[in-house]
């Protein structure tokens, strides 16, 4: 085999490879399905000189919580506490050296290769009321209560906006009127397939969510991976980072240019990520991957060649499809991991990135104020810079720690911010006052339909199920003195016939009179107890529940006075007006009404002397309202037995 044979061999192999490449490029319906046709020019990077010249101002940053955090990308602070979003869907609170999990935006998962199920919060921001808003790459815009962990979906990932579904929620900015500005990095790929977004045509968007109408409107479209977003201090415009374009767009919200856009700054020496405020009207712009004319990024070099991008994208898509097929036939963790890492940003080793790491500070006019940089390999891939108290915090989705450096060491002492502590609203605290307010209207509504409303009053005073109710039942000593109950027994029917009696009580003290009227009607209702047992249970329980907790203190004094002179009982009404306990009022109206009816109806007492033995089980039925004291419940039996005896 001579030189000609060798040349023919390699020539044939090249032809075969070329045919395969052409087939991969031009065959239809090969993954991915996104459009790859645009030729995009490489950014014209600014030179690393002047305010962009290299320096080591970021050198010596502390590796805070090393090996304790996984991918702390974004920050937010409220009430003197710092929060961060992590890989795996967690949002944690950082207080001193303590890490406190707050909420998980997604579902429980095994590992990071199940990121689509775990969730991935990218941008987080607090509103003025202490509510945390998070842009989860998979689950949408969420509103989170950091005290309870309750989540509410504001923008769903399945919701179409301008004919396309958002696939990669990234960053958010909150306006003072409650509106939300957020970025959709791509409408073609999820975050786990982020590398495909470099090769595909731009589809990122800046979107405005109006809180009043709950609608979304696209402000800027076709951004090459829309990323960080930030409102100006006066909210007259908003800026958004275009990561692979190495530039920032500005959209005017007010003024003569309202509704228009322009380039805020371009040619930055690297790829941009989240944007944050410097607290003085300017902006902090981190470069997650550095790039310049001498060290361009591979993803930006191939942008002018759409066929090459299509070839690379389809090669990765076919590889991913093979692993998906294997996983369907023979599910395994290896296949799932391979599917995840084929198109993920983490497939590229960080050692390939330039050694330079840069943070740029811009004015509100898009001018470079200064830059901070370092060549320390331990400090790389900065996704967000956040000023909190006396330190500058630097996050990264590729690090297992947070970079922290004192503001005094970088000459930013004037940017230190002192934030006053404010209480975060708690949802449970708002409900009890509503229950307490519900107790006031029932007494007004009792005269219309007293029994059913007493049953409705039972839930509000739940904390009032204290021991005093049985003590009030003990104040009614008729069981010990057999003659008085006989007089009281005939008196029970008169309240039905004699309606003016409760009116006299209303004249003396209307509030207690309204409360005293239901008890005699509750006594008249026991006759249906024999017909339907459940109503008496509902009617007997509310009286102790309606009694305020302060009543038992006043009830301790009247019992001895009643034991000394039980038949008179006329001295007791003053405490009844003060205290409003239903059991005491049940005993008092009887003697007032006893003055007239006893001579009229003398024979019934003989019938009513016997039923107390039958009424004892009803008293036991009434006891579940206060199960803690059984002895005192037995004392209250005769009061409720008397009306039943009348019916018998």
UniProtKB/TrEMBL annotation:
Q: What is a GO molecular function of this protein?
A: hydrolase activity
The terms describing its cellular component in GO are: endomembrane system
Domain Strictosidine synthase conserved region as annotated: residue spans: 172-255
List the residue ranges of the region (Disordered): 418-648
Which keywords does this Swiss-Prot/TrEMBL entry list? Glycoprotein, Membrane, Phosphoprotein, Transmembrane, Transmembrane helix
Q: Where is the composition biased (Polar residues)?
A: 562-571
Segments traversing the membrane: 14-31
Pro residues bias located where? 458-497, 509-545, 596-606
Give a single Pfam family match. Answer: Str_synth
Regions of biased composition (Low complexity) lie at: 428-439, 446-457, 498-508, 546-556, 583-595, 607-627
User: Keyword Glycoprotein: yes or no?
Assistant: yes
Report the domain of life of the source organism. Eukaryota
Q: Which family does it belong to?
A: Belongs to the strictosidine synthase family.
Name of this protein:
Strictosidine synthase conserved region domain-containing protein
Its taxonomic placement starts with: Eukaryota, Metazoa, Ecdysozoa, Arthropoda, Hexapoda
């Amino acid at each position: 085999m001579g030189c000609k044979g060798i040349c023919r061999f390699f020539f044939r192999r090249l032809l075969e490879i070329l045919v395969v490449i052409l087939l991969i490029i031009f065959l239809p319906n090969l993954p991915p399905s996104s459009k790859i046709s645009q030729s995009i020019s490489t950014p014209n990077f600014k030179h690393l000189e002047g305010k962009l010249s290299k320096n080591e101002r970021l050198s010596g940053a502390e590796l805070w919580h090393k090996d304790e955090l996984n991918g702390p990308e974004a920050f937010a602070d409220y009430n003197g506490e710092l929060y961060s979003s992590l890989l795996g869907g967690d949002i944690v609170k950082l207080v001193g050296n303590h890490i406190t999990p707050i909420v998980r935006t997604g579902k429980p998962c095994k590992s990071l290769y199940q990121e689509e199920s775990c969730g991935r919060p990218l941008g987080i921001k607090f509103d003025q009321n202490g509510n945390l808003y998070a842009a989860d790459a998979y689950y949408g815009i969420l509103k989170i209560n950091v005290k309870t962990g309750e989540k509410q979906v504001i923008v769903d990932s399945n919701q179409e906006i301008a004919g396309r579904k958002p696939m990669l929620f990234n960053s958010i900015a909150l306006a003072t009127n409650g509106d939300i500005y957020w970025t959709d990095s791509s409408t073609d790929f999820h975050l786990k397939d982020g590398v495909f977004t470099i090769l595909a045509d731009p589809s990122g968007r800046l979107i405005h969510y109006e809180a009043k109408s709950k609608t979304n409107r696209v402000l800027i479209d076709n951004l090459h991976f829309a990323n960080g977003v930030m409102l100006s201090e006066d909210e007259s415009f908003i800026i958004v980072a275009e990561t692979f374009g190495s530039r920032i767009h500005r959209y005017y919200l007010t003024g003569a240019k309202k509704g228009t856009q322009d380039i805020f700054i371009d040619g930055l020496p690297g790829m941009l990520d989240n944007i944050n405020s410097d607290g003085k009207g300017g902006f902090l712009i981190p470069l997650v991957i550095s790039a310049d004319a001498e060290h361009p990024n591979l993803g930006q070099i191939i942008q002018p060649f759409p066929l090459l991008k299509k070839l690379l994208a389809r090669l990765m898509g076919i590889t991913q499809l093979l692993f998906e097929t294997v996983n369907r036939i023979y599910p395994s963790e290896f296949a799932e991991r391979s599917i995840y890492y084929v198109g993920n940003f983490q497939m590229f080793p960080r050692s390939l990135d330039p050694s330079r790491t840069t943070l740029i500070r811009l004015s509100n006019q898009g001018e470079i104020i200064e830059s901070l940089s370092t060549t320390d390999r331990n400090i790389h891939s900065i996704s967000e810079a956040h000023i909190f108290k006396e330190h500058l915090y630097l996050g990264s989705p590729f690090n297992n720690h947070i970079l922290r450096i004192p503001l005094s060491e970088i000459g930013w002492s004037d940017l230190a911010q002192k934030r006053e502590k404010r209480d975060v609203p708690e949802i449970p605290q708002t409900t009890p006052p509503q229950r307490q307010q519900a107790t006031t209207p029932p007494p007004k509504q009792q005269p219309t339909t007293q029994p059913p409303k007493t049953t409705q009053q039972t839930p509000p005073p739940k904390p009032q199920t204290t021991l005093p109710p049985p003590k009030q039942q003990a104040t009614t000593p008729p069981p010990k003195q057999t003659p008085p109950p006989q007089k009281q027994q005939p008196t029970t029917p008169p309240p039905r016939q004699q309606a003016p009696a409760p009116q006299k009580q209303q004249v003396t003290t209307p509030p207690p009179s309204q409360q005293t009227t239901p008890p005699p009607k509750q006594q008249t209702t026991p006759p249906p107890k024999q017909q339907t047992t459940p109503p008496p249970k509902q009617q007997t329980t509310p009286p102790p529940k309606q009694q305020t907790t302060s009543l038992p203190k006043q009830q301790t004094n009247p019992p001895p006075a009643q034991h000394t002179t039980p038949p008179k009982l006329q001295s007791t009404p003053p405490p009844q007006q003060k205290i409003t306990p239903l059991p005491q009022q049940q005993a008092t109206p009887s003697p007032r009404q006893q003055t007239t009816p006893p001579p009229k109806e003398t024979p019934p007492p003989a019938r009513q002397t016997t039923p107390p033995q039958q009424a004892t089980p009803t008293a036991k039925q009434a006891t579940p309202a206060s199960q803690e004291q059984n002895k005192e419940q037995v004392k209250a039996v005769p009061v409720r037995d008397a009306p039943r005896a009348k019916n018998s």
